[in-house]
Amino acid sequence: MKSLSMLVTALNTLAVSLGLTYSALALDPETLYQRSSPAVVSISIPNGKSFSYGSGFIVNPQGMILTNNHVVGTSKRVSVRLTDGSIYSGVVVSRSPQVDLALIQIRPKKRLPSLGFQRVPPKIGQRAYAIGDPRGLTRTLSDGIVSRIDQSGQIQFTATSSFGSSGAPLLDEDGNVIGVVRAGIPGTNFNFAIPIAAVNRLPGQRGVVAQQRQQIETYLLASNLQIRQGNFQKALAILGEAIQRYPSNETLYSNRGAVKSMVRDYQGALNDYARSIQLRPTSLTYSNQARIYAALKQPKQAMKALTEAIRINRSWGEGNLGEAFYDRGKVQSQLGNRKAAISDFKQAARFFSQVSNTERYGAALDQITLIGAQ
Description:
This protein is an alpha+beta fold. It has helices at residues 2-18, 29-36, 69-72, 208-228, 232-245, 250-262, 266-279, 283-295, 299-312, 318-334, 338-354, 358-373; strands at 40-47, 50-60, 64-67, 77-81, 87-96, 101-105, 127-132, 140-149, 155-157, 169-171, 177-184, 191-195. The chain folds into 3 domains: 2-201, Thrombin, subunit H (Beta Barrel); 207-264, no CATH class; 282-374, Tetratricopeptide repeat domain (Serine Threonine Protein Phosphatase 5, Tetratricopeptide repeat), CATH 1.25.40.10.
């Protein structure tokens, strides 16, 4: 669990440093429900001659399910019903009464739909959606806002929650989990959820977030192999499948944008780069976006993207920054901004000299000489 804690901490630190809150591109409720509800499950637990019920949700395609500890109680095995009606026997593999979370493992015959986690802390006022089984009404959608977050991170929200909703996912507008529904008082706004970061405190299990990260890296590795072999359509298919499962991972969109640019689907590439930037802006994605704008002969848009690439990450690397300044200098020259172009080529030359790239250093100086002679 230490590696998971380090990963979540790193993600949160990065999000704060970039000034991110939650996703800028919201799904409409119907689309959110269609995408997210297949990963929500119903859980039943023997309780003497009767059963108690709750909700849960799948966190990886191999059948790992997250719910409340108070839903499973002291049971070692529970019954899990999936959206398609199939029923599995689940084993409680980890639990924590202190944070009121539990992990259940089932052994499905095929890969299952799963939910990703919001990568930045929730904010008061953001939209929130719950999908659970209130009073046995399976996979009911309710909506509201995050209304309060206490010092421990517990989330108070206004979406309806009642008996049977415990263990349900509380989602952001992209369908990512921000918390696990814990309790609610019907007819009031007193509904509470455990922040998803609390999964770090579950004992004896490899981190769920770390598992998701490894699965994403597997998709990226497989797509890169197809690219090296020139199988661009296969690479696009792999990345498309990955995005369906992890729709809020910026690297998947950025990589698919790069492949689309290789097959000259420039508009498709721009769409993917824009989505990647909305999720988490990086210098590399802005730089790639600028190259597409340059190919489409849209210099103003290219200059704006290059300016953002330079602005947001000066630790990007001297060589990369040199290329960004060089490219922006060329755009400035095209727009007739001679002084700005010379300034950019000087910056490019400085960065190229720092990495001893004499060829690119000379090219930047040649551009300065050329502009001066005009």
